[in-house]
Design goal:
Elements (H helix, E strand, L loop, with lengths): L9 E2 L27 E2 L2 E2 L10 E8 L9 E9 L10 E4 L18 H8 L3 E5 L23 H14 L24 E6 L1 H12 L6 E5 L6 E3 L4 H7 L2 H19 L3 H10 L8 H7 L2 H4 L4 E2 L6 H9 L18 H16 L27 H4 L9 H9 L3 E3 L19 H11 L16 H8 L10 H4 L10 E6 L27 E4 L10 H6 L1 H26 L3
Parallel strand pairs: 6-7, 6-8, 8-9, 9-13, 10-12, 13-14
Antiparallel strand pairs: 1-11, 2-3, 4-5, 5-7
Helix pairs in contact: 1-17, 2-3, 5-10, 9-10
Keywords: Glycoprotein, Hydrolase, Protease, Signal
InterPro entries: AB_hydrolase_fold, Peptidase_S28
Pfam families: Peptidase_S28
Amino acid sequence: MLALLALLLLPCLPGALASYPNQPPRLRRPIPPGPRPLLSHGFRRDSSLGVAAVHEGSFEQLIDHANPSLGTFWQRYWWNADHYGGPTWPIVLNAPGESSIDGYQGYATNTTLPGAMAQAVGGAAIVLEHRYWGRSSPYANLTAATLQHLTLQNAMRDVVRFAHLADLPFVRNASANATQSPSSPASTPWVLSGCSYPGALTAWLAALAPGTFAAYHTSSAVVQALSTMCEYFAPVERAMPSNCSSDFRRIIAHVDQVLAGPDDTQVARLKQQFGFADLRYNDDFAAALVNGLFDWQNTQFYTGYDPLHRMCDYIENMWPGSNATDPGARGVGLLKATAGFAKWSRDVMIPGSCVKTGYWSDKNTTACYDTHDASSPVFADTSVANTGNRQWMWLLCNEPFEYWQACGPGSEYQSGLVPKLLDRAYWRRQCALFFPDTDGMTYGLRKGRSVDALNALTGGWGDSSITTAAMAAQGSPARGQPIIWTNGEFDPWRPATVSADRRPGGPLPSGDNAPVWIIPRGSHCNDLLMRNGEANADVARIQRGEIDQVKRWVQDFYARRARGL
């Protein structure tokens, strides 16, 4: 078959889109499947450890840690203490991510790596909701004024304050005479875990706020903010069958030529072929052609046919019922590949894509691909429950994280998979549409903030002099803290992690206090779901290693406390 990797990989859930149409892909951790009573790494998954075993709690959090007088809001969390040994036993905290925690209850159970870690050490598991998402927002209307307190600094301080001050229901009545909270980090080993953006939060907390957590686990941690991230597409290309990537390059070169040419009729004909006859702007059409590549980051090992390889099969004219023969390594050539890609666009990508946002009812409309209309609900919906990526866009535009999947001017790397019109300016332009000035307030990019300043604060990739395992034992860029770094070989976000090829000094080597794991053929956060370990021996090996490492660090914590350290 053309798509050999398709036998191994599938997105975690059909609805777990990498990106809203023509929006930057979000760094969302995978949504866990329902629990199954299967053996996994030496313990049985309780079928009862599903949503019913996970409880809801809330914590009174400061709106702005630098200005407590602004007041507080309630920050939601899930907790599961089914395997909790009692006061001073470990607590595994999932760092908050850029979405509501509805649907993420599984991260408090042993269907996921953090929950399995908690079970292995006799601990409780907690999933903390990120400020401004779900039911944890201080404001209902999200504008440039009210979003001023959605910052990296506040998000990090939320985590630390929660660990020190949360009145956790499962330890509340543990000891009436205790001189400190029975869950205090002074007496209890807290383990912080995160993948993707939460993984970066975890690493940045290790570097900037050491002392609260006994150990850290990160997966696909995007610690280096990048203004342009054309390298995102390099791992995707490596994951594609070679005939598909070759034909895709031919298609994009042809699209670039047509869009740059003087023949408006030819441009209109090309848009119509792909199902975008009503899309006014050429840059939006160019961006739409890349949306299929973003699906790769959602792939998991535990089952079947993934969207990227489905797209490739269409490009190679092997859609269901086509009766086409395998085209071989050379591909089908420009004309057939363009026809196949256009059929995929019309038949697979477009139908229902705008309906899924909740803003349109016509399954064939392409209105959600228009990023120039300021009145579009994508930009106009300021509610917390918006589906237009609003809060994440604020972090991209304000901190700024940027992470724009763009090539062209400003990019050190170029990719033949990306149309020339999809550049950094395309993404940055949308910041002003999302966040027009409100009460004199605006976003960071407009005020001159840069990723360079952010990386100077966080440490980014870390000390470029760290080039040996002996040096890595110091834990850089976590500055000596015990931390696990796990990344996928084919993770599109790997260029922003410590395993990036262009990290100064090269990818971070593994050390005793900072082990680095690379998942062969892995994509984004593939160690998080335990079902991936059931499907893939390499993932299982790495998951066992991660759990064993956390167990050792927890034991070290108790040994130090016993010595009065």
